[in-house]
Amino acid sequence: MLGLVMRAILAYTSARIVLLVVSVVLLYLVGARGLLLLALAFVVSGIASFVLLSRQRDVMSGALMARLKNRRPRGPGFRARLEEGTRAEDQD
């Protein structure tokens, strides 16, 4: 299960990085330079990834949700451990 989740995350992240690089190259060829180039590249790649990578995003979120749903409980929760520590301090 972990392999599936990591593969989905890696595929989505790699695709986002590729879209950012392609955006930088295209905007550079158009004539954008410096901070404007970076800002426009992030905006363009963000919009493109929203449209083009919806399937990968759905696969990644589904894999993450399945992993979170199937995980085993790890003993007492954070709140219980905090309260236990508080009781221990109060007794001292």
What shape does the CA trace take?
elongated
The residue fraction in helices comes out at over 70%
Supply Rg.
Answer: 22 Å
The averaged pLDDT comes out at 90
| Strand elements, count | 0
Largest sheet: none
Unreliable runs, pLDDT <50, ≥5 residues? none
Provide the domain count: 1
Give helix and strand order, one letter per element, not per position.
HHHH
> How many helices does DSSP assign?
4
Structural class: mainly alpha
Percentage of residues in DSSP E strands: under 5%
Quote the distance from N terminus to C terminus: 45 Å
SSE layout:
Blueprint: H1 2-30, H2 34-52, H3 54-69, H4 78-91
Helix pairs in contact: 1-2, 1-3
Architecture overview:
This protein is mainly α. The chain has one domain (2-91). Helices cover 85% and strands 0% of the residues. It is built from four helices and no strands. It has helices at 2-30, 34-52, 54-69, 78-91. Helix 1 (2-30) crosses helix 2 and helix 1 (2-30) runs antiparallel to helix 3. The longest helix has 29 residues, at 2-30. It is elongated. The protein starts with a helix and ends with a helix. The mean pLDDT is 90.
Key features of this structure:
92 residues; mainly alpha
Can you summarize this structure?
Helix content is 85%, strand content 0%. It has 92 residues and is mainly α.
